[in-house]
Specification:
It is built from 7 helices and no strands. 38% of the residues are buried. It is mostly helical.
Amino acid sequence: MLTPGPNMIYLVSRSVAQGRRAGLISLTGVGAGFLIYLAAATAGMSAVFTHVPQLYLALKIAGAAYLLWLAWQAIRPGGGSPFTPRDLPADGTRKLFTMGMVTNLLNPKIAVLYVSLLPQFIDPALGSVATQSFLLGLIQIAIALTVNGMIVLFAGSVGTFFTRKPNWLRFQRYATAAALTWFAVRVATDKSKPLTA
């Protein structure tokens, strides 16, 4: 959850540009996006991948490539950090919620997480795969909302800190790139198959 991606970039930028309230409203939209992905995964998205393994492989490769692209964005010359906020226009509650949800739904890292990474922690011998998948997803959502909520609350302070300490900003960028690259390799080389309920 600490590796920057579209959700974090959007939430930080929104919080700095429009305030904590706007960031928290956007975060509820992000949470709704997580729930939509979790519901789809629990309802049988894995079954589709079981019957069409090429689709599962394509999603894993696309997800790994996306994570590598995010890693490159963090360390490329002239690359930015999510703590370098962008200017955004002020938006209303409904639009903030919708934009948070859409940002999350368009984030392939989340799809990869639910259909490729979480199944590694599911043991069919312990009971319903759907129940385990749903509970793991709820734990992930709780952690994601907590971490992103703290980021929203402290976005302005963290942004100011990194602006004044360029060496820390550089370290954050390289640490992020290393973590994203590790996850990309892990997803790409994982040999587990999708589990069905």
